[in-house]
């Protein structure tokens, strides 16, 4: 079990591996929600508590840079809100798409219980080597590791740097998992980061089933914002276990900006400087969006109690 400051002593703060085991067994997914602003972490956690849902709170390396946040600041607000709101549902603090081991080390030191190494744009051998290094480092510290094989496209470049897409090969996935020892694998099978304006989402279920049949690790779909619920939910119940983690970021930010009557993104400092009534309106909007995703999209609402039986 993890021993970082903050996570220690809290039985409801889990690693990603622990959380996804329950989700896979229950044939639902856990939403991995990126508030993008530290002021919105409170809203994401409040949604989970009210919906009685397990949840993952995440931020990526590019989001840290774009919004002006450090892993330490993000983790401190996360653990502060756990105490402030007396959050009792299962939670994971996850570092999403990250390419630098230094950032991974910083996040683990700050109390993240899960990290993602993303070397998916590199040749297979380099991806294996870097993912293995991250897994060895994190596992020694009680932290789960997610990696990516194939390339997941994007429409807004907030989380990744290219819209290039390369579907995950099932045989390569089996070899990759064997060589790296990662706990979860993000796969490319038709979803993309951001908002679907021209290209429409699709899910290659046969590819997912083939990957799952050959790999023992939990599968992750990035690009959950904007995907029809029935399309996503079919991926949870595939033979042998389907997708157990779905990343949702853009929908949260869009609901925040709409509540504020804004179109342009802010920095984290600008968000924290909003008037109290604006912050409250933004948090209410984000909370409602997250609750809707838990109830109607990933189907995790009401599942928190099953973790502690």
Automatic annotation (TrEMBL):
CDD domains (UniProt xref): TBP_aldolase_IIB
EC number(s) recorded for this UniProt protein: 4.1.2.13
Gene3D superfamilies, per the entry: Aldolase class I
Species of origin: Paenibacillus favisporus
Listed cofactors: Zn(2+)
Protein name: Fructose-bisphosphate aldolase class II
Assigned keywords, A-Z: Lyase
GO molecular function term, any single one: fructose-bisphosphate aldolase activity
């Amino acid at each position: 079990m993890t021993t970082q400051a903050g996570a220690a002593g809290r039985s409801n703060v889990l690693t990603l591996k622990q959380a996804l085991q329950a989700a896979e067994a229950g044939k639902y997914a856990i939403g991995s929600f990126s508030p993008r602003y530290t002021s919105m972490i409170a809203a994401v956690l409040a949604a989970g508590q009210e919906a009685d849902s397990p949840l993952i709170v995440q931020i990526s390396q590019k989001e840290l840079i774009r919004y002006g946040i450090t892993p330490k600041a993000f983790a401190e607000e996360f653990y502060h809100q756990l105490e402030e709101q007396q959050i009792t549902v299962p939670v994971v603090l996850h570092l999403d798409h990250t390419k630098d081991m230094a950032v991974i080390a910083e996040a683990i030191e700050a109390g993240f219980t899960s990290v993602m190494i993303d070397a998916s744009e590199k040749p297979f051998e380099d991806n294996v080597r870097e993912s293995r290094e991250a897994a060895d480092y994190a596992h020694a510290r009680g932290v789960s590791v997610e990696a990516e094989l194939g390339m997941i496209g994007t429409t807004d470049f907030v989380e990744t740097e290219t819209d290039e897409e390369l579907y995950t090969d099932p045989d390569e996935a089996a070899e990759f998992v064997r060589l790296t020892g990662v706990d979860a694998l993000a796969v490319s099978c038709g979803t993309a980061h951001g908002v679907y304006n021209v290209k429409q989402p699709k899910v290659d279920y046969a590819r997912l089933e083939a990957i799952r049949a050959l790999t023992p690790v939990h599968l992750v779909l990035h690009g959950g914002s904007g995907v029809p619920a029935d399309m996503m939910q079919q991926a949870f119940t595939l033979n042998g276990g389907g997708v157990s983690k779905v990343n949702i970021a853009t929908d949260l930010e869009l609901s925040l900006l709409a509540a504020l009557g804004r179109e342009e993104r802010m920095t984290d400092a600008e968000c924290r400087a909003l008037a109290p009534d604006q912050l409250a309106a933004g948090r209410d909007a984000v909370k409602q969006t997250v609750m809707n995703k838990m109830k109607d999209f990933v189907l995790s609402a009401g599942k928190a109690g099953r973790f502690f039986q």
